[in-house]
Amino acid sequence: MKKRFINYITYQKRFSPHTITSYANDLDQFDAYFSDLYACSVEEANEIMIRSWVMYAFDKGLAARTIKPKNINTQVFFQIPSNP
């Protein structure tokens, strides 16, 4: 699903290379967190798991202006059409 998402934002939405890299990095960070803590991938994460990441990020010292875009990126990830 991540590869399909990256293809979707690259070719259909025509996001900039910088934005695509940012989305990919954020998804990799989420994936690592969910894999370590919940033994699941970002595709299997639910709202409670995502909120736990936000709290983890705050506890880690990340600023709200850093966390918010990362959180928005996951929202976009979960909203892509099933057959883009």
Could you outline the blueprint of secondary structure elements for this entry?
Blueprint (H helix, E strand, L loop, with lengths): L1 H11 L4 H22 L8 H13 L4 H15 L6
Helix pairs in contact: 1-2, 2-4
Notes on the structure:
With 84 residues, the chain is mainly α. The protein has one domain (2-78). Helix content is 73%, strand content 0%. The chain is built from four helices and no strands. It starts with a helix and ends in a 6-residue tail after the last helix.
Structural class: mainly alpha
Unreliably modeled segments: none
- Give the total of domains: 1
Q: Which outline best applies?
A: globular
Mean pLDDT: 90
Query: Largest sheet, if any?
Result: none
Query: Could you spell the SSE succession in H and E letters?
Result: HHHH
Q: In whole angstroms, how far apart are the ends?
A: 11 Å
**Helical proportion, percent range:** over 70%
Entry summary:
Helix content is 73%, strand content 0%. The protein is mostly helical and 84 residues long.
Which terms would index this structure?
73% helix; 84 residues; single chain
